[in-house]
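Title: Prediction job returns without error message
Component: structure pipeline
Severity: low
Priority: P3
Assignee: unassigned

Description:
Job completed but the reporter wants confirmation the result is attached to the right record. Sequence as submitted:
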Amino acid sequence: MGNTVGLLSESLARLPWETIGVWVAALLTLAVYTYLAGNNPLYLLVQHVFVGMAVGYAVVVVWHSLLAPRVAQFMSAPSSYWHYVVFLVLGLALLSRAFPRFSWLGDVPLAYLFGVGAALSIAGAIAGSLIPQTEASMVPLLPAYYGGGTIGVAYALDRALVSLGAIAVLAYFYFGAKKQEGVRRVWSSVVGIWSGAGRWLIIVVFGALFASVAVGRIALLIGRLHFLLGDWLKLTGGWR
């Protein structure tokens, strides 16, 4: 038995695994591109393979990076890591969602997850977006604050444009009455002008984001084509 396993291992070691990997990657890439001709069984097969590999990889990473270290910690000092048992029970309760009769057991961990997720989202939006953007808009506009001279004027102008842009975008979401009289009419007109500028700023930002996504997709396409023509078909000398 030992000799058989050894011979099998030696035989597998002699195989050109690098070439086999290139062919598998190329065939899977072509199978993905068959979607351009419409949804077909080959594309669905590649989808299932990709999802299966992603799930398998995630399970292995979670076990080695998350579960196994905590199990070892709990086994070494149960009194110090007793709270791991609570989270283990909550995690196992989630599996009850697969059984309709006992699905109510999963309500508690789901409520906990949604509560923690909502708290993290709100805190992240406030600390990571709202406060930094507010601080970036409330800056000095005096050139002397930035060292004076041409550089100081440039920095002050840059900060002024950022602040004016933020005000314009906020003005776009001002939904006041359009028909006003006197001072209110003047105010509505000013807000209307600023809201128009804010609308164009939003359009420019969304256009830049779309262009960034499109350029990223084109870069991926070029990389795949270079792989097919170079590493697989050897027409361009391979990837460099």
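Comment from assignee: result matches the submitted record. Residues 143-240 form one domain.
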